[in-house]
Write a structure and sequence with these properties.
By secondary structure, the protein is an alpha/beta fold. It has a domain of 188 residues: Rossmann fold. 44% of the residues lie in helices and 22% in strands. Strands 1, 2, 3, 4, 5, 6, 7 and 8 form an 8-stranded mixed beta sheet that branches. Helix 1 packs across helix 2, helix 5 runs antiparallel to helix 6 and helix 5 runs antiparallel to helix 10. The chain starts with 14 loop residues before the first helix and ends with a strand.
């Protein structure tokens, strides 16, 4: 089974809260900091965060730039937007949240100074169309900054997790876990961005360390903050225990006295 549509990674229920609690601090926030640095927006900028999720990139930009700038976050998932709005209010940030399709952006041509898209391009059914839409709504001197996870063999702990999920929970669960890691190299990404009309394309690799208290907690947090929740909940308790046991053995090389730690690698892309 191949899940190629964006709906294959849409989360529901309490997942936005888990996503914000478990995934944002560990890697979405550090990558958001790097994305904003990559684009270097100045006060007074008009900024769009495409497929914003719980809005960490928009929130980071708004926090750094202050009230002089206009920041908008767009996502197709209303529950994620509700969580984004809640977090922005807690942080005292003024951000416009809008539900919409990244493949048909509800904005006029040549509006934005800076566009961001964090870990979402790989989920779009037609990524080239989305990149073209980003080009359309961006000013002639604007800047695009996005990131895309490297192929899963560069993210070994997730490769192990995907294999164990497939073995114990089924092919769909394994496919879900692999879907954030497209099999794209730098040349592929560069060509995609160039064909959308962008120039001055710069790609760099970023590697961060992820740490969890245990392999079991790694599984629990990933499941709670993604569509895997339903797949895990459907399993019998004995099968879940077997999955945890096998995951502990498979991740032994990444386990120390503090839990489990492993590298995560992503492409960071900037373009004009």
């Amino acid at each position: 089974m191949q899940l190629t549509e964006v709906e294959s990674w849409q989360i529901a229920g309490d997942s936005p809260a888990a996503y914000e609690e478990y995934l944002v601090p560990g890697f979405f926030k550090p990558w958001a900091d790097k994305l904003v640095q990559l684009s270097s927006p100045s006060p007074g900028s008009d900024i769009l965060d495409v497929a914003c999720g719980t809005g960490i990139v928009a929130r980071t930009a708004a926090s750094e730039l202050g009230s002089d700038s206009r920041v908008t976050g767009l996502d197709i998932n209303l529950q994620m937007l509700n969580k984004a709005s809640e977090m922005a209010e807690k942080e005292g940030l003024e951000i416009e949240w809008q539900q919409g399709d990244a493949g048909d952006l509800p904005f006029e041509d040549n509006r934005f100074d800076h566009l961001f898209c964090q870990q979402a391009v790989q989920f779009f059914p037609e990524p080239q169309q989305v990149l073209g839409e980003m080009n359309r709504v961006m000013k002639a001197d604007g800047t695009l900054a996005l990131n895309i996870l490297r192929p899963i063999h560069h993210n070994p702990a997730y490769s192990i997790l995907a294999d164990e999920l497939e073995k114990h929970a089924g092919e769909t669960a394994g496919t879900m876990m692999r879907s954030p890691f497209p099999d794209w190299d730098q040349k592929t990404i560069r060509n995609m961005v160039a064909e959308a009309g962008f120039g001055d394309i710069r790609i760099q690799l970023e590697i961060i360390s992820m740490r969890y208290p245990s392999p079991e907690e790694f599984l629990r947090r990933e499941a709670a903050s993604s569509p895997l929740a339903g797949e895990i909940e459907a399993m019998e308790p004995e099968r879940v225990m077997k999955l945890v046991d096998d995951l502990n053995r498979s991740l032994e090389a990444y386990t120390d006295d503090r839990g489990v730690v492993f590298p995560m690698e992503t492409y960071m892309i900037a373009a004009k």
